[in-house]
Write a structure and sequence with these properties.
With 580 residues, the chain is an alpha/beta fold. Among the domains are: 231-341, Alpha-Beta Complex (Flavocytochrome C3, Chain A, domain 1), CATH 3.90.700.10; 427-541, Methane Monooxygenase Hydroxylase, Chain G, domain 1. It has 16 helices and 24 strands. The strands form seven sheets. Strands 1, 2, 6, 7, 8, 9, 16 and 17 form an eight-stranded mixed sheet that branches. Helix 1 packs parallel to helix 10 (391-410) and helix 12 (443-457) packs antiparallel against helix 13.
Length: 580
Amino acid sequence: MIEHDVIIVGGGLAGSRAAVALAQNFPHLDVGLVSKVHPIRSHSVAAQGGIAASLRNLDEQDDWLTHAFDTIKGSDYLADQNAVEILTRDAPEVIIDLEHLGVLFSRFEDGRIAQRAFGGHTNRRTCYAADKTGHAILHELVSNLFRFGTKIYDEWYVMRLIYEEGEVKGLVAFCIETGEIEIMRAKAVMFATGGYGRVFNTTSNDFASTGDGLCLTALAGLPLQDMEFVQFHPTGLYPVGVLISEAVRGEGAYLINDHGDRFMANYPISKNKMELSPRDITSRNIMAEIAAGRGINGGQYVHLDVRHLGKERIESRIPFAREEGMRLLGIDCVDQPLPVRPTAHYSMGGIPVNIDCQAIDRHSQPISGFFAAGECACVSVHGANRLGSNSLLECIVFGKRAGEKLGDYVSDRPQPNLDARRYYAEAEAELKQVLNQSGEQSSYELRTRLQDTMTDHCGIYRDGDRLAAGLAKLQEIKHDYATKLNVSDRGMVFNMELTAALELRSLIHVGEIIMASALQRQESRGAHYRTDFTDRHDEKYLHHTLGYLADGQVGTSDRPVDLSLIAKDEQRFTPQERKY
């Protein structure tokens, strides 16, 4: 049995920042970081546009309270305001921390960190490293992990969260390279496992974004929060779905329909902000253009046009967007517009946690030994819709905070009692059961059915009949997974077919909780748009959704939203109609 004081699962921005905070502040603690990919291959490395903070390097009138208001308004008032206060107050400090850790931000000519405009933000407060911001930050964090000597288990797959007697005690994992099963015991476990974009058939997320941490939490009988709120990024490169960063629109790109119109001006909710409207609004407008036959050549996409910016600005500010267009489609955005349409991008929901990043149960009580941060967590600073450049900020602010709180939490906490033999035997039996499946459907076939079902029944536009039908289809897929799966590779060494089968389990369980949560919320709010309930309904639905598995079935309940900032500014922070 492997033992550490703290085990962090996930090597992206939140997990790595937590591990760095532990190493900086609690060097006596033994920390292990487990990741199913090498940490610098975590999806955080693909984040492009930037990280928001009221540094006032460009707009001197900016402050944390305005950033908080933009965030809460963008969330359609579903964000927890106490968490948003921490996010926005701490933002300037964590940017300076990152700079001191070695992150090379883009600069103005006078040497100050550069900032740009982003959708839904009143001020130009997004700090960036060209359009490779996640890459710049994650590489420095992982370099610091090596400097501090943090133990990293890369290419290990976590099969189970050990939760017994009301306490998280560790993990069951296996090494993908060797097939070796290990029980890992710890005084506390932190999940930083990212999102679940691969539950849809078109996504900006990498292949590792399969919601494993969320699935393991649900299988342990613990709730997930606000899973119906899935953000579709407006500008996925068509038809591949790869992200074209919001930084491109922040630099002045136009969205153009088949008539050559900047169509955002034609919609009352976006005519003021135009291309820098929040993502949920922009995505729906694009889909409305396509549905009306105004996609390019009547097709399934519109154009993102940056030609007017000029080659020099494109190469200096958004070089990666140009590279992606040329690499994937052979289109140079200096000379031609890029074809784009919305792509599944971000999960606002996740494991419910308090402001100290400790996971909480259905009754809002902290769960002993269990923490979470980043996209897999729901603290909730994004509510029903996330503003661009707030996701990296959440990972850094709450990743750092999680590390600091974990250090205090485990300093005088003993290792839990744990019967490793039982968990080892159950893990061995589970893997054998998956490997011995000899049905007629591959994990690829089942995953494609799942992704198509989620996209068709729980995409940008939803209604009760389609959601109910989709949930029934998911139950059929779950049954076929249990009875008809075929795993042709029976070995344990680098068996990626086995890993894919386990990831499919994650996608199925996460998908059914998303679908069930969307079905019960009979209103439209942020990224959740019901064509049969087109209005927001605060009296009935200004609360968080809890979705969970109970005896193999999905259940839902709710939790109140924190509105504490009303005391600071009643006029702005009281829920009201969202206008731009």
